[in-house]
Design goal:
- The complex is a heterotrimer of chains A (638), B (163) and C (102).
- Chain A contains 26 helices and 2 strands.
- Chain A has helices at residues 2-22, 28-51, 80-103, 110-129, 133-151, 158-189, 194-202, 209-226, 235-238, 244-253, 255-265, 267-270, 274-297, 301-321, 325-352, 365-368, 370-384, 390-405, 407-436, 459-474, 488-493, 505-530, 535-544, 550-556, 561-608, 615-637; strands spanning 57-67, 70-78.
- In chain A, helix 14 (301-321) runs antiparallel to helix 19 (407-436).
- The longest helix of chain A is centred in the C-terminal third of the chain and has 48 residues, at 561-608.
- Chain B has 163 residues and is mainly α.
- Helices cover 76% and strands 0% of the residues of chain B.
- Chain B is globular.
- Chain C is built from 3 helices and no strands.
- Chain C has a single domain (5-96), classed as Orthogonal Bundle (Helix Hairpins).
- In chain C, helix 1 runs antiparallel to helix 2 and helix 2 (30-55) packs antiparallel against helix 3 (59-89).
- Chain C is an all-alpha fold.
- Helices cover 76% and strands 0% of the residues of chain C.
- The chains are: A mainly alpha (638), B mainly alpha (163), C mainly alpha (102).
- Chains B and C meet through helix 1, helix 2, helix 3, helix 4 and helix 5 of B and helix 1, helix 2 and helix 3 of C.
C-alpha cells in the first residue's frame, strides 16, 4: 500500500522533472510519451491501491516540517473519498494528456506544456491524499501556480498573461482565508492532522461554536477562491484564454473541485456550526443560478462551458451544504467526465473552425463533424440532466438531499436549484443547436475563417471523446438511487455523510420525475428559440450581429461583477499606488534626497556670499569672532 | 595729588577720543586724536615711564599723526561738510560687539585674584636702557629691519610711473 | 602706583572699546579705519606701561617702545597704500577694492 501511494504521487512529479531537465534533448514523441506514461502509471498504482483497500488508512512516507510542536510529516490518508478522487483524477487527466498530444501538435513549447500538466497532476494528488493541512496547502498552492502558468501559457499575448494573473490573484484572496484558518486551527488545537481534527469534531465541539463558525467561514473563503464560487468566480471565464486541454483538466475535472474537496474533508469539524453549513449551501445555490444565467447569454463556446462549470460546482457545494457528501462526490466524478468531454469536444470544434469560438458563427457541424457530434451530444445530455444519463442521477441526488433537509430554508434552495436545472437545459441545448444544427443561410465567413472549409481534426482528439462519453452516460450505474438498488458510492462513502433526512422511495421517485420534466421543458424552450427551421432562430442570428442591449448585456457581462470589482477595489488600489509611487517613492524618498542636496547647495551659496571681498564685512566678521571668543571665556566665568 | 591728575587726564583722553571718532571732518578728528595722545603721554609720565611719554609725543603725535594729516590733505577728499554721518542702524553692530567685548574683558579681568605687586621702586631711565639694550637687544635689531622694510615698501609704492 | 591697577585696566578697556567702535562704525573709510587701529594700539601701550609700573620692571616700557616703532612702520606703509589706491580709483571707500577676490 505504501509503495502504491508513493508511486501515485511520485510518477507525475518524476515525469515533470524528467521533461524539464531532459526534454530539450529528446524528440517530441519521447516527451509526450513520458508525460502520458507517468499519468497512466499513476492510474495503475491507484487501481492497485483500490484493490488492496480495506478501510481508511494513514500512511507516513517521510518527515517534512518539524519544529517545536509543529509537526507536518508527509503523511497520506487513504479513505474512500480520496481513493475515488485519485482514480478519477488520474484517469481523466491521463485521457486529457493523450488528447493534448493531438491538440498541441503544432505548438513549439510542448516541453513546458507537458511538464506543467504533469506537475499539476502531482500537486492535485498531493492535495487529495494529504493527511495534514500543511501538505494540503502545498498541493493547493501547487495547483494554483500550475493553473497560472497554464492559463497564461501563450503569454506572448497580453490578454492571456492578464487572465493568468487574474486567476492567481483572485484565488489568492481565497488562499488567505485558508492560510488564516490553518494557523488558527494550529493555535487552537496544537495539531494540523486532518484525522485528529475531524475526530475532535465528531466528539463534540471542543471550542465555542462561534470559533468553529469563523473557522468554517475562512475555509469557505478558501474554497470560494479555488472553486470559483461567488463572489470570487470572476477568474474562471477569463481563464478560458488557456489551451483547451488546460481548461478541461484544470477547470473541469480537478482544480476547481479542490475547494469542494476541502470542505468535504473538513466536514466533520465544520458541521458543528450550522451557520457554516447553511452558508455553504447558499453560496452553492446562488453560484449555480449565477452561472446558468450568464451562460444563457454567452456567445463564446468555451465561456459557456466555463459558466457551466461554475454552475455545476455550485451544485456540489449545495450538496455539501446539505450534508450529502456522497451526492457531492458522485456529482463531482460524473461532472469530471462529462465536463472534460464537453471541453475536449469544444476543442475539436474550435480546431476545426480555425479557432473561431463564437457559436453564432458556427452551424451545421452535425453533418461535417459526426465523430465529434455524437460524444458531444452525450455530454450535453448529461449536463442538462436528461433522464437515465449519469448526470441525471447525480444532479437529482443532490436535489433530493436538499429536499430531504426539510424546512423553509432548504425548500427555497430546492426551488432555486430546480430553476437552475431549467436554465441549464436551455443553455446546453442552445449551445448544441447553434453549433451543430443546420443553418438556413450559408456559413457566414468570419475573419478567422476566410474559406468555408474546415480544418481536419487530429484523430486522437476525436477518439478520446468516446471513453469519456461512455463513462458519462453509464455513470449512473455508480450510484443508483435507493429504489433501484443500493448505490455503490453510497455504501462506499456513507461514513462521511452528515446529518440528513431520509426520503421514502415514493418521494424520491416523484422528485426525479419533476426534475426530468423540468429538464425536458428546458430542452423544448431551447428548441423553440434555437432549433433549426424556425424563424426565431434566424431572428436570433440577425440580432446577434448588433451589440447586446438590456438584460442580454447584463447577463453577458457576467452581471457586471468585473466592473463592480474594478470600481470597488482596483480603482482605489491604482489611486493609492499612484500616490505611493509619485508621491512617496519619487516625492518623498527620491526627492527628499534631491531637496536635501539642493538645500545644501543653497546654504553653501548663501555662506559663499560672506566672502564678498569687501573689507568692511571682513572687519565685522573678525571682530564678531573675537567677541564670540572673549564672550565665551567671560561666560565661563559667570 | 597724582591721583586727581590721573583721573582728570583719563577723562580728557576719553572725551577727546570720543570726539575723534564722531567727527566728520578728518582733520578735526586728527586734532582731537593728538589731544588724546598728549593726555595719554602725561599719564605715562605719571606712571614713571618718562621715556615712553616722550616717545609718544615725538613719534606718535608728532610724526604719525602729521603723516596722517599729509595724506588727508594730499588726497583731496571733497567737501567734508557734505559727508554723511553713518546712521544708527549702521552703528548698531559696532556698539553691540564692542559692548560685548568690553563687558567680557571687564569680567575676565575682575575675576582674577589680584596679582602681587613687585617691590615698589621706581623704574629709572637707566633701568629701562639696560633692559632695552641688554635683554631685548635682538628685538631692537629686528625692529630696525622692520623699519627698513617699511621704507623700502613706501618708496616702491610711491614711485612716479612714467605715463 | 598712583592708582590701583584695576582702574588703569578699566581705562585701557574703555579706550580699546572706543577704538573698536571707530573701526566698526567707519569700516568703509580707510582713513578712519587706521585711526581706530591707532587708538586700540595706544590702549595696549597703556596696559603695558601700567604693568611695568605695577611690577617695577622695565620690560613693559620696552614693549611699549616696540609698539611705537611697529606702529610707525605700519602706518607709513598703510598710508602709502592709501595714496596709491586713491590714485587708481579716486576713492577711500575700502569696499571698492575687490579685485583680489575674483
Amino acid at each position: 500500500m505504501k509503495t502504491a501511494l508513493e508511486l501515485i504521487v511520485l510518477l507525475p512529479l518524476l515525469g515533470a522533472v524528467f521533461n524539464i531537465l531532459l526534454g530539450r534533448f529528446l524528440p517530441r514523441r519521447a516527451v509526450e510519451v513520458t508525460a502520458c506514461a507517468a499519468i497512466w502509471g499513476s492510474f495503475a498504482a491507484a487501481l492497485f491501491a483500490a484493490g488492496a483497500y480495506s478501510g481508511p488508512t494513514v500512511v507516513e512516507i517521510g518527515a517534512w516540517l518539524s519544529s517545536f510542536n509543529l509537526k507536518a510529516p508527509i503523511t497520506f490518508y487513504l479513505d474512500s473519498l480520496s481513493l475515488s478522487l485519485c482514480l478519477m483524477i488520474t484517469f481523466v487527466c491521463g485521457l486529457i494528456h493523450l488528447y493534448s498530444i493531438g491538440y498541441m501538435r503544432d505548438d513549439p513549447c510542448h516541453i513546458r506544456f507537458f511538464a506543467l500538466l504533469n506537475l499539476f497532476v502531482w500537486a492535485m494528488l498531493i492535495l487529495v491524499l494529504a493527511e495534514n493541512l500543511l501538505l494540503l496547502y502545498l498541493g493547493w498552492e501547487g495547483v494554483g501556480f500550475c493553473s497560472y502558468a497554464l492559463i497564461g501559457f501563450w503569454y506572448k499575448e497580453v490578454k492571456n498573461a492578464t487572465a493568468g494573473r487574474k486567476a492567481f490573484i483572485v484565488t489568492r484572496i481565497g488562499d488567505i482565508g485558508l492560510a488564516i484558518a490553518i494557523v488558527w486551527l494550529f493555535k487552537l488545537f496544537e495539531t494540523l492532522s486532518i484525522t485528529r481534527l475531524n475526530q475532535m469534531g465528531q466528539m463534540g465541539p471542543p471550542v465555542s461554536v462561534e470559533v468553529i463558525t469563523a473557522l468554517g467561514l475562512l475555509l469557505l473563503l478558501g474554497a470560494m477562491g479555488k472553486s470559483a464560487q461567488a463572489p470570487l468566480m470572476v477568474w474562471l471565464p477569463d481563464a478560458m484564454a488557456g489551451p483547451t486541454p488546460v481548461s478541461a483538466q484544470i477547470h473541469a475535472a480537478t482544480m476547481v473541485t479542490a475547494g469542494v474537496y476541502l470542505l468535504m474533508r473538513m466536514f466533520p469539524l465544520i458541521q458543528i456550526s450550522s451557520v457554516v453549513v447553511a452558508a455553504i449551501a447558499v453560496t452553492g445555490v446562488f453560484t449555480a443560478f449565477y452561472g446558468a444565467a450568464c451562460a444563457i447569454a454567452e456567445r463564446d463556446l468555451k465561456r459557456i462551458l466555463a459558466y457551466s462549470t461554475i454552475s455545476q460546482i455550485g451544485y456540489m457545494m449545495l450538496a455539501v451544504g446539505c450534508g450529502a457528501i456522497t451526492a457531492a462526490t458522485f456529482h463531482l466524478i460524473i461532472h469530471a467526465f462529462f465536463k472534460a468531454l464537453l471541453f475536449l469536444g469544444a476543442g475539436c470544434v474550435i480546431t476545426a473552425m480555425h479557432h473561431e469560438q463564437d457559436i453564432f458563427r458556427m452551424g451545421g457541424l452535425k453533418r461535417t463533424l459526426p465523430t465529434v457530434f455524437r460524444p458531444f451530444l452525450a455530454g450535453a445530455l448529461c449536463l442538462a440532466g436528461v433522464p437515465l444519463t449519469g448526470g441525471f442521477f447525480s444532479k437529482d441526488s443532490i436535489l433530493a438531499a436538499t429536499w430531504a433537509q426539510g424546512g423553509v430554508f432548504y425548500g427555497t434552495l430546492y426551488v432555486v436549484g430546480m430553476l437552475t436545472v431549467f436554465l441549464t437545459a436551455i443553455y446546453t441545448f442552445r449551445m448544441i443547436f447553434m453549433v451543430f444544427g443546420d443553418r438556413e443561410t450559408a456559413l457566414q465567413p468570419s475573419r478567422k475563417m476566410p474559406h468555408s472549409s474546415l480544418q481536419p481534426v487530429p484523430r486522437i482528439m476525436e477518439r478520446i471523446l468516446i471513453p469519456l462519453a461512455l463513462l458519462a452516460l453509464a455513470g449512473g450505474l455508480f450510484n443508483l438511487p435507493a429504489y433501484l438498488g443500493s448505490g455503490l458510492l453510497d455504501s462506499f462513502l456513507a461514513p462521511l455523510n452528515g446529518k440528513g433526512g431520509h426520503l421514502s422511495h415514493a418521494t424520491e421517485l416523484a422528485l426525479q420525475g419533476l426534475a426530468s420534466i423540468v429538464a425536458l421543458a428546458g430542452i423544448g424552450v431551447a428548441w423553440f428559440y434555437y432549433g433549426h427551421r424556425h424563424q426565431r432562430r434566424e431572428l436570433r442570428l440577425a440580432l446577434a450581429e448588433q451589440p447586446p442591449t438590456g438584460i442580454v448585456a447584463f447577463l453577458q457581462a457576467g452581471w457586471y461583477v468585473d466592473n463592480l470589482y474594478h470600481f470597488l477595489f482596483i480603482r482605489p488600489f491604482k489611486w493609492l499606488s499612484a500616490i505611493l509611487w509619485e508621491g512617496v517613492d519619487e516625492g518623498v524618498i527620491d526627492d527628499s534626497l534631491d531637496r536635501v542636496a539642493v538645500q545644501f547647495g543653497r546654504t553653501g551659496q548663501f555662506l559663499g556670499r560672506w566672502g564678498s571681498g569687501r573689507v568692511s564685512v571682513y572687519m565685522l566678521s573678525l571682530v564678531a569672532g573675537a567677541a564670540l571668543m572673549i564672550g565665551w571665556f567671560a561666560w565661563e566665568i559667570l | 595729588m597724582e591721583q586727581i591728575l590721573f583721573y582728570i587726564l583719563a577723562t580728557v583722553t576719553v572725551i577727546a577720543t570720543l570726539f575723534a571718532i564722531t567727527e566728520k571732518h578728518p582733520v578735526h578728528a586728527i586734532i582731537y586724536l593728538v589731544t588724546s595722545f598728549f593726555a595719554l603721554a602725561v599719564i605715562f609720565f605719571l606712571l614713571a615711564a618718562p621715556l615712553i611719554a616722550v616717545f609718544e609725543v615725538i613719534i606718535y603725535a608728532g610724526a604719525v599723526m602729521v603723516l596722517f594729516m599729509f595724506v588727508i590733505m594730499m588726497l583731496d577728499l571733497g567737501n567734508p561738510e557734505d559727508a554723511q554721518r553713518p546712521s544708527l542702524l549702521h552703528c548698531l553692530p559696532a556698539l553691540l560687539l564692542s559692548g560685548i567685548i568690553f563687558t567680557s574683558l571687564m569680567l575676565l579681568v575682575s575675576s582674577r585674584p589680584a596679582a602681587l605687586p613687585g617691590d615698589s621702586h621706581v623704574v629709572s631711565v637707566a633701568d629701562f636702557a639696560i633692559t632695552l639694550f641688554g635683554k631685548y637687544g635682538v628685538a631692537i635689531e629686528i625692529i630696525s629691519m622692520q623699519l627698513l622694510f617699511a621704507i623700502v615698501g613706501v618708496l616702491y609704492l610711491g614711485r612716479r610711473r612714467k605715463k | 602706583m598712583i592708582v590701583p591697577l584695576m582702574h588703569l585696566l578699566i581705562f585701557a578697556s574703555i579706550l580699546f572699546a572706543l577704538g573698536l567702535i571707530c573701526v566698526l562704525v567707519w569700516r568703509a573709510n580707510v582713513i578712519m579705519l587706521l585711526i581706530g587701529i591707532e587708538i586700540m594700539l595706544n590702549s595696549a601701550m597703556l596696559v603695558f606701561v601700567a604693568g611695568s609700573s605695577y611690577w617695577s620692571m622695565a620690560d613693559g616700557q620696552v614693549f611699549a617702545l616696540m609698539i611705537i616703532a611697529m606702529t610707525s612702520a605700519e602706518v607709513s606703509l598703510a598710508l602709502a597704500m592709501v595714496v596709491y589706491l586713491h590714485r587708481r580709483k579716486k576713492t577711500v571707500n575700502v569696499d571698492e577694492f575687490r579685485e583680489l577676490r575674483d
